[in-house]
Amino acid sequence: MITSSVLIKNANIVNEGTIVNGDVYIENGIIREIASQISAKSPNVQVYDAEGKYLLPGVIDDQVHFREPGLTHKATIATESRAAVAGGITSFIEMPNTNPQATTIEKLEEKFDIAEKTSYANYSFMFGGTNDNLEEILKVDPKKVAALKLFLGSSTGNMLVDDPEVLEKIFSSTDLLIAVHCEDEDTIKENTAKYKEEYGDDIPIELHPIIRSEEACYLSSSKAIELAKKTGARLHVFHLSTAKELELFTNKIPLKDKKITAEVCIHHLWFSDQDYKEKGTFIKWNPAVKTAKDRDALFKALLDDRLDVIATDHAPHTKEEKNNVYTKAPSGGPLVQHALPAMLEFYHQDKISLEKIVEKMCHNPAILFEIEKRGYIREGYFADLVLVDLNAPWAVNADNIAYKCGWSPFEGTTFRSRITHTFVNGGLVYKNFKFYDIKNAKRLTFER
């Protein structure tokens, strides 16, 4: 529902480390005024009474796989961005390992064209690096593209960048933020071969974190960080999954000054290896969900700022694909609709404050990627906003799952908090399980 003027009243505004009750006035998609009380300036203003609900900046998810083009039996930009706004995610950054891969400027722009027509949430895409596309990497405009994605393990197509000389050249040559998936491929191959010899293709899923081990993660992460320090490259390490890797990161520097940053994903904060017995391949991710000790260490590092952002790594597959034996079941799962409710559940468990959730899911992605005028509730910023009722329990079930794949690792979970309204650039796109067929999204731009 798009109107040129919107007034949100009586909201508990969670922003920049504080919670204050007040009103927010929006005009033409921009936040124009924030005050304790604002009167409607004309009869044409659409007024929403928040009735004491909590108003958050729209979540920015810096790592999703929406599968388009080429893998649209699993998901599309339209279906998954729609699920994202139901989860309070108003902006996403999507990965390059689609089919075809976004490893040329031409293929990257084709994805932007699709999103412009079909996305419900604001969007950007990462450019993909390979062993032989440095010339294309150097053509990327850093003001228009989120980052460069390098797979240093667990890649698709030809996107595994495993030539050390090429890797150093890329790190030395680009001003783009370099985002990396870190798992050592040789270690994983060796472990897989060992267990395949014992079990064939039907390796017990409980061995997944042993195959994609702590050692595989640490070896790759430490090499990437060493290279970033050597070359001065701006490095962002995706989806940390082990306690050991946390020693590689610091909380001694403000985020805006960090050259090396890291994220943690929802599934690594929620699940542990104890959950494989019940969930099976439906919680098979790369990197793997590991021990409860790892999970607790990740949460601690999130709170003490060694880990900078929370993301989803949303990567849907069909139920049929996930129901395969270990070696044939793909890794990844859908998460954008349930990431914020999961974090709010941690709030109810007294594990994290609302202010910290907003910092890690809204403010910090905006700082880290230098996203223009998003991630905060500030006058002059785009009106990407989410209203949350902290006392409106709901259960995840097949009837309310919005993903094209039709399943969720959270199925059967009851969340105590509900996202009631999502605004994208001032337009109401979602309200209490109802979607408005309005595409008010914009391409993200970057202040670089």
TrEMBL record:
Its cofactor is Zn(2+). This is Dihydroorotase. Belongs to the metallo-dependent hydrolases superfamily. DHOase family. Class I DHOase subfamily. Catalyzes the reversible cyclization of carbamoyl aspartate to dihydroorotate. It comes from the Bacteria. It comes from Aquimarina addita. InterPro entries: Amidohydro-rel, DHOase/Allantoinase_Hydrolase, Dihydroorotase_CS, Metal-dep_hydrolase_composite, Metal_Hydrolase. CDD domains: DHOase_IIb. Residues 54-429 form the Amidohydrolase-related domain.
